[in-house]
Amino acid sequence: MNTKYLNIKLYFWLLFFCASLIFIFFPQIDLYISSLFYDGKSFPANGMWLEELFYYSVQPIIITFALVSLALFAYNFFTKKNILNMNAKVVLYLLLVLGVAPGLIVNVTLKDNWGRARPAEITNFGGTKEFTPAFIPSNQGGYSFSSGHAAAAFSLIGFALLSRKRKKFWMSLAFAYGVFVSLARMSAGGHFLSDVVTSFFIVTLFTYIFHMLVLQKDEQ
To answer: Is the dihedral of CA 100, 103, 109, 115 positive or negative?
Structure first.
């Protein structure tokens, strides 16, 4: 299980594969988890301050991290210094982490084209659309699969992976933030469990792949 493929341990690939099969063949898991947040009439967490805190925090946090990284790169470039080792390769890596997985794959390819209805939109929870399992395309014009907010939140793992001290702490913190954002989206009826889990795996896999392709040679 310690064998790596594209810089990712075999067990992680297997976890993604098994999780995908479970959500496809046992879609009632999605319905059951979403029902825990449903009170029979609505998703009461939707609009609550804690849910909105995590929902609206994602974009400014990501933008802040990106702008600070670019500012550090510019400062290092013009002053010939090396604050936080923010060089051109690191910037390229971060652009790939933020742009490809949460941007092109999750939002542009999946979310905008898959058509899966959100929990709050389906008949099981008072809506008018039909439930469809994860990974099965739908023609209902929904934007549930997969979660853009969860993908963006989990992309902070890419920043944490750059840390040279207390890496496990920063990785855990980034993961925890992604989990809380995912829970906020689920509690509001915005996404199913499979939506946020899929976003986590996609972002994490591509983060480690880009880390290997762009940076790993410099760290060896």
So the answer is: positive
